[in-house]
Each structure stands twice: as C-alpha cells, then as structure tokens.
Amino acid sequence: MDLTPLEQSLDLRFQNRKLFQQAFTHTSFAHERRNTGSIPDNERLEFLGDAVLELAVSEHLFERFPEMTEGDLTRNRARIVCEPSLAAFAKDLHFGDYVRLGKGEELTGGRVRPSLLADVFEAFIGALFLDQGLEKVRAFLQHVVFPKVDEKWLSRTTDAKSYLQELVQQEKLGPLEYRIVDMQGPAHDRHFVAEVYLENDCLGQGSGRSKKEAEQQAAAQALEVWEKRKA
Length: 231
Hints:
By secondary structure, the protein is mainly alpha-helical. The protein folds into 2 domains: 4-157, Ribonuclease III domain (Ribonuclease iii, N-terminal Endonuclease Domain, Chain A, Orthogonal Bundle); 160-230, Double Stranded RNA Binding Domain (2-Layer Sandwich). It is 59% helix and 11% strand. It has helices at 4-10, 17-23, 27-32, 43-64, 70-80, 83-92, 103-107, 114-132, 134-144, 151-158, 160-170, 211-230, and strands spanning 176-184, 191-198, 201-208. The chain has a 3-stranded antiparallel beta sheet, covered by helices on one side. It is globular, with a radius of gyration of 19 Å.
C-alpha cells in the first residue's frame, strides 16, 4: 500500500512504514489472508493508541482550560476520545481511503463505518507513538484535532439534544423526534444509528455505542446544519 499521499497531506515522514501499514489493516483483511502467511492487524496498535490519546488529550485539556474541575476534565476528555469524535477526525483526514479490508467488510460499507474509522484513528496514534514518540503525537494532535476542540465545540457536544431543543422551541417549529434506525455488532459491542426529525424532515444522523450517544451525535449534526443555514 502506498502511504506517500498520506505522508504528504499530514506533513509527516514515516520511519517504520510497516507500523503504519499495520495501523490501516483491519482484522477482516488479515483473516482472509491467514493461509498466505501472518499479516498483523491493527487491534494491538488500537489498544496502545487509545492509551496515548487519553494521556495527550488529558494534558491538553489540563493546560488549555485551567478553570475546569476534575469532573469537567474527565467528561470533556470522554467527549473527545469517543467513537463519533474519533471517526469524524479520521474522516476529515481521509483515513478510510487507506484501510485494507476483507471483501465482506468492503461490501458492507466498512470503509465509512464510524466504529471502524475510530479504531483506525487510535491505531494510527499507536503507530505514530512507536515510530516517533509522544512529542510527535502531541504535534500531530495540535495540528489536526485540538484546533477543533474549542469551548464552542465542547459546549455543543456537552448536551447537543438540549441545545437543539432550545433552538427549535425559540422558533416554535414543533416537537423533535429521535429514531433508532440501525443497530450493528454483537451484544457486547453494539453500535446504534439515530436520526432526529422535525415533523418528517430529517435534521441529522449520528452513531454511537449507546442509543443516547447516537442521539447526541444526531443532534450535533443537526446543529451544524442549522448554523450553516443561519450563516
């Protein structure tokens, strides 16, 4: 796989390219090729990347928001290091274009699935940490993630449903309705897809590991569309 375009877009130079190939290798790809030799998938890098992200994000919030309490720091870290947010970051970086998938996963839309993209983002962070250290991870996040995580973004993700409800009530547009339109994954690892409607007009869609998280993300998407219309 050619990762040169990704290096150029991120202004990075990978030293151990095999690490990054592994970061973009889904289990389905490795499983389909198990008879031709061992191909490592990205699950171990995902595990490491999750821990590195927790540390880097905690450090950023601690320094950027000195007025936040421990509870606020914990909640805001969770809003950043969660599936919908990580999937959005990965989508912005076009990570889905580089993922190596098995045929079945490809046919069922794995390349754009939020859970898969979030996992790839974590695996990439794990690879970058092993390849170039924590300082390079910090620099990467300062460039592509932290500029988006301002007070407005955090307040919107705090309770997007309540904020959207207030806007709708102010303009007396009628009641909002949330619908769970899809559910994927085994019982221990469910992923829900929710949509929010105003009458029969779908305002936004979101996904998450719980119905509540999916509804919050649907509301957050609706707010983005709302703000663009008002701009």
